[in-house]
Predict the structure.
Amino acid sequence: MPKKNESLKTEEQVTAEDVDVKATETEEQSEVVDTETPETDLPVEEEAETVDEVEELRKQLEAEQNKYLRLLADYDNFKRRTQKDKELANKFRSQSLLADLLPVLDNFERAMSATTKSEESASLLKGIEMVQKSLLEAVNREGLEEIKSVGEQFDPNFHQAVMQEKDDSAEPGVVLQELQKGYILKDRVLRPAMVKVNE
């Protein structure tokens, strides 16, 4: 009989020990859970600092975006200017050469106005006329054109008045005589025409 009581006692002790161990584990777990749970409530000072940092970052982002947009606009303007300069350079690439050829054209005009008396000089004049025609065709292909003067209304953009004369048969301000031919290259005046204008 005493053996039975001892065995019962032992079982009771084991159960009590198990309960103590489980209780201890539960307390430890609750401590662990308590330490791991994050604090959601920030102090007021930290929250204000966070808001200030966000606002500062937003301002920096806006400044960088504005800087980028300005750079992009500058680059587009640069591209347009470069393209325009390139087109102008291509359009007027022969301006310098044609300006140097204007005195040659003037000399051809003077040679053609000379009178011929012999057959030799007539054939020479015919050769000069052919050369002049070829030269005029070449410069016309490059866009060089004569400025119309005689009978036209005086235009200071295209004409340079070097003389004035009274002529009742023409309206005032009309070009009476062309003293030197003027030329335009496409839409640019290369040399204005020197003219005599009616008063």
